[in-house]
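In this supplementary section we document a worked example of the pipeline. Step one takes a protein sequence of length 308 as its only input; no multiple sequence alignment statistics are reported here. Step two produces a three-dimensional model, which step three serialises into structure tokens for compact storage. The input and output of this example are shown verbatim.
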Amino acid sequence: MFRMPRQTQSLHKYVWLLQWAALCVYSVSDCACCPIALQSPLLEERQEMPKKKKKAAKAVKPRKAKVAKSKGKKAAKPKVKKAIKQVKKALKKPKAKKALKKAKALKKPRAKKALKALLPAIEEKAELLSSEAVFEGPLFRVLRDRLIEPGGKLATRDIVHHNGSVVILAIDNAKNKRDPWIVVERQYRHAANRFLWELPAGKLEPGEDPLLGAQRELAEETGYRANKWKPLVEYYASPGFLGESMKVFVAEGLVAGDAHPDDDEHIAFRLVKLSELLKLIELGAILDGKTLSAVLLYARRLTGKGKK
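The serialised model returned by step three reads:
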């Protein structure tokens, strides 16, 4: 073996110390027991790094707050749903129902005002200049009238004068009030040139009370008598030339009896349910005007749609 000179040995030792120092700085800098690592400037830089991370974390916080705000908006939806439910519950309460009734009551006076608007404050009448009877028969007479109509127009009119008639809507509602039986008649009408189904009806005698006339006609044509009577409607069938007023009565609580029709009357009658009679009307099988108006009005009031 050869021995190294002393100068080379000392140089070798110096190089080895430098390598050892470098290893300590880069690999053992985290070791708390290493005195060289504690004095190293790299350790100070690494100790300052967490402070920078904390600052970055603080900068992120506002973003989290924004997310929380968006969550708050989503959470507001259930509150809106709760409010809607509360409003629905409030509408179901008696107070809400009373308010609705009051609102409906406010509409009624307006309807009455509209009806009043249709009726003039002062009804004008025609001025009759002359009247001539051109025909007289057992049921009616025809007059030719010259007159000045409201508005100042001079006119000549042929008018059929009649004492008036009564119509009877005889009802048997003992078993079913919603769909009662109704008395209808079938007889030949020469003016229509056919048989018609219609309600019992008849002319009034001069000066006869309409209710008494209705009771008389029902008993004569059908034999029925009624315990309860009430007026339904009054109308003019053809006011352009016919002066006949027709008064309709509802007769309830029927009691059967013997019929006594006039000699010129050949009447067959039967009881038909209201629902079936309405179907016949829709099919066009009922052509009599008084039957159409009386049955339809009665059915409307029975369902509550035409109450006064």
